[in-house]
Automatic annotation (TrEMBL):
It comes from Micrococcus lylae. Pfam families: LMWPc (PF01451). Signal peptide: none annotated. Its EC number is 3.1.3.48. This is protein-tyrosine-phosphatase.
Length: 159
């Protein structure tokens, strides 16, 4: 299975989700069956490292980062089995890039996998760019919760 995590610029949310998902897959023993990478819908930060607070908070939580900013392409969409987007704008952008076809079946909001989805509905992962550190902490908490749901869905064969 090939998964791509997607946000706007690929320096905050999607590299964080990539790191969280990679570690969760490793801990669950699924890392040999699932590859994960991240991309952005815009080209603002191609080739850049993740945002400093993404790295700082992520490293404090024990995550490692090996990706640099990349822009999502049509080929990426075609090759992916699952595309996890952070918000509705990302969702719309990915489907617009994909064009007509069956991409809708593989594009999901990461928030669809949250433990609170039954009580709060599907929540977007807010963009923390240029916000204080505590917003990045909140982002990681939300992503970790959602990733637990993604891994459970993979294990159950739902994805």
């Amino acid at each position: 299975m090939r998964i791509i995590t997607v946000c706007l610029g690929n320096i905050c949310r999607s590299p964080a989700a990539e790191a969280v998902l990679k570690r969760a897959l490793q801990r669950s023993g699924l890392d040999s069956q699932v590859s994960v990478r991240s991309a952005g819908t815009a080209d603002y930060h191609v080739g850049e490292q993740p945002y400093p607070l993404t790295l700082e908070v992520g490293r404090e939580w024990g995550y490692t980062f090996d990706s640099v900013g990349a822009q999502l392409t049509r080929e990426d969409i075609d090759d992916a089995d699952l595309i996890l987007v952070m918000d509705e704008s990302n969702y719309d952008d990915v489907l617009a890039l994909a064009g007509p076809g069956d991409a809708e079946d593989k594009v999901h909001l990461l928030g669809e996998f949250a433990s609170s989805v039954d009580t709060q509905g599907v929540l977007e992962v807010p963009d923390p760019w240029q916000r204080p550190k505590h917003v990045f902490v909140d982002m990681y908490e939300q992503i970790e919760d959602c990733v637990e749901g993604v891994v459970a869905a993979i294990k159950a064969g739902d994805l």
